[in-house]
Amino acid sequence: MSAIPVIAIDGPSASGKGTVAARVAASLAWHYLDSGALYRLTALAALQRGLALDDEPALAALAAKLDVAFLEGMILLDGEDATETIRAEAIGEGASRVAVLPTVRTALLQRQRDFAHAPGLVADGRDMGSVVFPHAPLKIFLTASAEERANRRYKQLIAKGEKITLSQILQDIEQRDARDRARSVAPLQQLPDALLLDTTRLSIEQSVQFVLDHWRAVSAA
Ligand code: CDP
Ligand code: CDP
What we know:
Elements: E1 6-10, H1 17-28, E2 31-34, H2 35-48, H3 56-65, E3 68-71, E4 74-77, E5 80-81, H4 89-98, H5 102-113, E6 121-125, H6 128-132, E7 138-143, H7 146-159, H8 166-182, E8 195-198, H9 204-220
Parallel strand pairs: 1-6, 1-7, 2-6, 7-8
Antiparallel strand pairs: 3-4, 4-5
The structure holds cytidine-5'-diphosphate (2 copies).
One cytidine-5'-diphosphate binds near residues 13, 36, 99 and 180.
Subcellular location: Cytoplasm
Catalytic activity: CMP + ATP = CDP + ADP; dCMP + ATP = dCDP + ADP
GO molecular function, one term: CMP kinase activity
C-alpha cells in the first residue's frame, strides 16, 4: 500500500468536486487527479476514431494506450489540446457510457494510482474512495441538490458558448447520476467511512475549508 496521503473526493456530476479538490490540492501544495478527465478523454478518443461506445474490447484497448498528458492547466490527447473539448456535455455523457465497462475501468486504474506522489494527492471522481484509493485517510462524499448542480453546470456551459437549456442539463445530470449509481462496477455511492459534504448552500471557500479542517484533524490524530 502506498504511504502517500490521499484525500478522496467523490460525488455526483457538477457538485463542485473538481473545483474544491483542485483548491484543496493547491492550498496543501499537493498533486491533483481529475479522474473524470480520463473517462472523458477515453470517450473523446473513441468518438474521434469512430468506435461505438459499447464496444468494450476496443475501448479497453484504447484506454490502455491512451496518449494523454496533464500539464499545468492543460490536458493533451495525442499531443493536441483537449482541455475545453472534453468539457462538452456530450463528452460527459459519452464518458458515463464508457465508464460502465469493467475492462475500461481496469485499464485506467494504474494510471490513476500513478498520480500519488509525495507530499500527497487530492483525487476526485466517483470511485476514488472505494476502488482507486481505498486506504485514503480522508474520504469525502461531496454533493448538492440536483437543481443546484444543474444551475452550476448551466452557468459553466453557457459561459463557454454551449447551446443548451437548464432543463436539458437537469435531465442529463439526472440520467448520468442514475447510470453512475446503477452500474455493477465501482458505482457512485456514499461509503460508510466517507464524510458527507452537502454544498447546496455553501460557497466554494466554505467547502474547501471543510475539507482542510477535516484533513488537519485526521493528520493530527
Ligand atoms: O467536478 P464537478 O463536476 O463535481 O463540479 P465542478 O466542475 O468543480 O463545479 C461545477 C461548477 O459549480 C463550477 O463552475 C464551480 O465554480 C461551481 N461551484 C459553485 O458555484 N459553488 C460551489 N460550492 C462549488 C462549485
Ligand atoms: O464533471 P462531472 O462531475 O459531470 O463528470 P466527471 O467527473 O468529469 O466524469 C465524467 C463521467 O466519468 C462520470 O459521469 C462518470 O460516469 C465517469 N467517472 C467514473 O465513472 N469514475 C470516476 N472516477 C470519474 C468519472
